[in-house]
Amino acid sequence: MSSRSAKAESAIRRFLARTNKASEDVALDTSLFADGVGMDSLETAELSAVLEDELGRDPFSEGLTPQTIAELVDFYDEDAPAQ
């Protein structure tokens, strides 16, 4: 895991804890929506803003729709630099 993906995972877990969506020990393969942590569209937009602020980019703004925490973290494991 790269340092960027570790930062992303930490930011995601802090967001989920702050919004009472999941505990810190939630599994990476947990769905972000419905049967997983149950994020709605407003929370998804807020998480997108948090990731953009902390890491310089986010998958939602780039047209991707990650379904799990792992897919979000993997986005930051790419070699693309932050803008």
Structure commentary:
- This protein is mainly alpha-helical.
- It has one domain (3-75): Non-ribosomal Peptide Synthetase Peptidyl Carrier Protein, Chain A.
- Helix content is 46%, strand content 0%.
- The protein is built from 3 helices and no strands.
- It has helices at 3-18, 41-55, 69-75.
- The longest helix has 16 residues, at 3-18.
- It is globular and about 25 Å long.
- 19% of the residues are buried.
- Determine the CATH topology: Non-ribosomal Peptide Synthetase Peptidyl Carrier Protein, Chain A
Helix percent reads 40-55%
For the sheet with most strands, the description reads:
none
Question: In percent, how much strand structure appears in the residues?
Answer: under 5%
Number of strands: 0
* Overall pLDDT score: 90
Figure out the total of helices: 3
| Structural class computed from helices and strand pairing | mainly alpha
Total discrete domains: 1
Helix-strand string: HHH
Low-confidence runs: none
